[in-house]
Amino acid sequence: MAYERLPLSDNLSVNEEGRLFFAGADTRTLAEKYGTPLYLMDEDRIRANIRLYKDAFRDLWPGEAEVLYASKACSFLEICRIAESEGISLDAVSPGELLTAKKAGFDLGRAYFQGNNKTDEDIACAVEWGVGTFVTDNPEELSALEKEAARRGIRQKILLRLTPGVDCHTYEAVNTGKVDSKFGVAIETGQAASFVREALASAHLELLGFHCHVGSQVFDEDVFERTARIMLGFIASVREKTGYTARVLDLGGGYGVRYVDRDPAIDVRKKIGDVSETIRETCRELSLPLPRLLMEPGRSIVADAGLTLYRTGSVKRIPGYKNYLSVDGGMGDNPRFALYGARYTVYPAEKMREERDMVCDLVGRFCESGDEIQRDIRMPRSMERGDLVAVATTGAYNYSMASLYNRVPRPPVVMIRNGEDRLVVRRETPEDLLALDL
Length: 438
Ligand code: LLP
Description:
Elements: E1 2-5, E2 12-15, E3 20-22, E4 25-26, H1 27-34, E5 38-42, H2 43-60, E6 65-70, H3 77-85, E7 89-92, H4 95-103, E8 111-113, H5 120-128, E9 133-136, H6 139-152, E10 156-163, E11 185-186, H7 191-201, E12 205-211, H8 223-242, E13 248-250, H9 268-286, E14 292-295, H10 299-302, E15 306-318, E16 322-327, H11 336-340, E17 346-348, E18 358-363, E19 372-379, E20 388-392, E21 413-417, E22 420-425, H12 430-434
Parallel strand pairs: 5-21, 6-7, 6-14, 7-8, 8-9, 9-10, 10-11, 10-12, 12-13, 13-14, 16-18
Antiparallel strand pairs: 1-2, 2-3, 3-4, 5-15, 15-16, 15-20, 17-20, 18-19, 21-22
The protein binds ligand LLP.
């Protein structure tokens, strides 16, 4: 029987024998049943996170709203089925993500096709599949889409991606709202205004409104409010110049999640309440109608619904220098430390009640020194080959960023609901990798 919840997240607990439980399931049993490395996902948590957004919009936003799951955070059939069954919409950035949603039975009329460099093939494929709305990033894409829509004799709904010129103080790789970003068209330079004029002149495109996304893993106090004011100011100036009033405002994704105990907790409901109030006030000041409000959370839907299990291989001690604990996965299934220096909480999954008296780096099996999962963690000195290691909060941007480096097949995904586990993505095999080779 699991008890004693861990402070990081209430789907993590420890039983009397010192074993880690996740989503009510014993990590040792799951590791034995499915092998390691293993991605675990907590379906109840995914649904609860989605409902947090839906309920907040329903209760705190007086107009229409739509929650889009940003599927780049984690995309496979079962996740899309869950999103579909919760009735939310989807943000997809490639035909691959769109196909996953389509095969899951997701109504692509509720899909938003994003991305800063959609190819002609991407555009044709998304139009063919009936994607509801394109989030158009640049003038070249706008004319390519106009051509495709004209060819098919349809009127395609679009949003324009704008760059509001907001620095949200997250790591550079995901800081996307600044004027010099590769994404979108900047308001500050005046280019956004001409972008809008071009869109309005397109006979086969129906401009619904504007999109922006300032960054990911954002903790800044008022960044969404600042962004909303800039976007609404732009909407008002467009109305003044052209008579066109945007009906949709999409504020993107980005709320940060806790990876380690010292990370602050974001109260999504309160945040949405604050943004809602700012938008209402600003609309009143500018005499704008309330837009249909969209948000695109990815990380905050799935991150804390994920846990990765590994088995220890070697424990290398270099006297006077340092210790390494190697596991059977690494940067292939979780490249986030290598890419961003991302923090994670690591647990000795079967030795949770032992003293953590060894400082070590948690490293993987891949052939480069950069293959680290976390540096300077504390683990029990007794850790030895075969012992389980768990890394928490791996539900976002782990599976979706996994690579085939060293031709190491990718781990399976097991979904847990009400303490019951089921395989939702099988383990890749070396034969799967060879299937593409001619
Ligand atoms: N909307 C757009 C247009 C985005 O570009 C993103 C994330 C989201 C929504 C979802 O943001 P979220 O709620 O997940 O923060 N690989 C990086 C994260 C890249 C984020 C890319 N865009 C990482 O592992 O931290």
